[in-house]
Specification:
The complex is a heterodimer.
Chain A: H1 3-6, H2 10-27, H3 40-55, H4 73-87, H5 99-115, H6 120-129, H7 132-155
Chain B: H1 2-23, H2 29-37, H3 41-63, H4 73-77, H5 80-99, H6 103-111, H7 115-138
Helix pairs in contact in B: 1-6, 2-3, 6-7
């Protein structure tokens, strides 16, 4: 198996990102909350909160380290994907199909995600760390996906 | 110190974005594809992510480097926040499936130039703003 097929494999993604997330957790274990190596909702919250706090007096309850350090995971994700898509010649600007639906979906995911403090990625990460709330959220997540698939099949 | 943390997060994000674009990995898509068309490619990635983290945490726990403490199973299940977690997870799964992927997948799609995901992130950050401006005061007394 050479490198180009390896990086196309979802299993390699799972192993590499999980190791990176745990390594980050160990490296900054005094600063980070548990199971905080990779999360899209929480890190977007910290990113937004750092900018908002430096612009004005707007307070958000981010973890303590996030008031000093700018959490750059969202930028890293977009930049990594941009580099990869340019290299694979898959970059294509466009495809704006359902703006209102997507706006509402984004707002709902971030608000509910902040309520349970997880995006789908961190739900799995927390479950693997041994958090029962993560396990409960994972059960809910799988029920929700099945429900949505059922709705999609019925509407067709 | 702060700059080190920032750069470490940037590096992990870059790795996840780079590999995520190549493998089309999606944390909602894994289970969705399995239920919809019995395609296990993404589900395998999801399981690999879970298994690797679980083994790594087990190793850290045994060697004593990092011992996570969480509330006991029984206390967590029979609490308000347990119910909120199940319902919240259900809603996140439902809405994410309708929007076509988990937030991580939408970051990757935005990097590929998909403008739908750009709109998604306008809503995403608007949701964060609304949550901390209004919703957090409404639910303050609940748990």
């Amino acid at each position: 198996m050479n490198l180009s097929t390896l990086k196309r494999s979802p299993i390699f993604f799972g192993v590499a990102v999980a190791l990176a997330a745990v390594a980050l957790q160990v490296a900054f274990k005094d600063d980070l909350p548990l199971a905080y190596g990779i999360c899209t909702v929480c890190h977007a919250r910290d990113f937004f909160s750092w900018i908002a706090n430096h612009l004005g007096k707007f307070q958000m309850d981010s973890p303590g380290f996030a008031s000093q350090a700018l959490v750059l995971t969202p930028i890293g994700l977009v930049a990594g994907s941009l580099v990869a898509s340019k290299r694979n010649a898959e970059f294509k600007l466009g495809h704006q199909a359902h703006p209102v639906l997507m706006f509402l979906c984004g707002a709902l995911v971030s608000m509910i995600g902040l309520l349970i403090m997880s995006c789908p990625t961190r739900i799995l990460l927390r479950t693997a760390f041994g958090d029962t709330f993560g396990l409960l959220a994972a059960v809910g997540l799988f029920c929700g996906i099945s429900l949505a698939v059922l709705v999609m099949k019925l509407r067709r | 110190m702060a700059i080190v943390i920032s750069l470490a997060f940037l590096a992990v994000g870059f790795l996840a974005g780079y590999l995520g674009q190549n493998s089309r990995m999606c944390f909602v898509g894994g289970f969705r594809d399995f239920v919809l068309v019995r395609d296990t490619a993404l589900l395998e990635g999801l399981m690999a992510f879970f298994a690797t983290t679980w083994l790594a945490v087990l190793l850290l726990r045994v060697t004593g480097v990092l011992v996570p403490h969480y509330p006991a199973f029984k206390d967590a299940v029979f609490s308000t926040y347990g119910v909120v977690s199940v319902v919240g997870g259900l809603l996140v799964g439902f809405v994410s499936t309708l929007s076509g992927g988990c937030p991580l997948r939408h970051h990757v799609l935005l990097g590929q130039g998909r403008l739908d995901s750009g709109t998604y992130f306008l809503g995403f950050y608007a949701g964060i703003f609304v949550y901390f401006r209004f919703v957090v005061f409404l639910i303050k007394g609940l748990f």
